[in-house]
Please model this.
Amino acid sequence: MSISQIEFNKIVQKLSLQPGTDDYSKIENSIEIVNIAFLKIAVNKLENLLNRPTNQNRNHLFDRLMTFYNQRVREHQVMYLLMHIIETTLRSKAASIISKKFSDQGQDNWWHDMRAIDKKLIEPVMLGAKSAHKLNVAPSDMTTFNFFDSITFNQLLNIYSDFWTDFRPSFTSKAYKGHTLPELSKREFEAKLRHIRSARNDVSHHKPINHSGGRRRQDLIDDIELILCHLGYNLDDAINNIDPTHNIIQLQYI
Model:
């Protein structure tokens, strides 16, 4: 028995599917071409709906299942874009702060003298040089933005931690759109980024956000929104383009 058949048998039991029906064959055929993690969530939602005492409708089960499934796909699409926003913002901010701290006035040249590079920044430089070699680009034509695009999210977190005194002014308490943003300590910021990193990895691998034991979606969105507001990113405008009704991403600071 294949793994697809094993999973399908579980669905048959949960939804009480009858062999020979259109719903039975359609769901069976879908097993090998959908995201199983998303499908399981959809099956559970449909099962709960079918088990309600007031529900007598067992028609069009495949279509109803796919409605729940596509809701998860839509959520994934929106969260993927949100992860893109927070990651690129953090990378760009880090690149700007580090370049300003270590480069000559008005220059972006902190990596030109390898002997003078802070040891905690050796890794981004090496990864950037490797990337430049692959692209057949001279290291002298690289910028700090290029270097910071080459590091992993975990390495980015380490840079914020290692140079927190330089990043801390961005996360002090401040007024924002009639609200007061709370100050973020180093420990609080690191904790939020670890949760964001876990969810980012899930989203990147097309898993539900809580697949790896992460926090619920709204807690994650709240953390991302707070960090972006501190950095001056207008998330409300960005979200209006990808989730105009804010059904998935509900903001606090608007």
Summary: The beta strands are 174-176, 179-181. Residues 72-242 form one domain. The two ends are 53 Å apart (CA to CA).
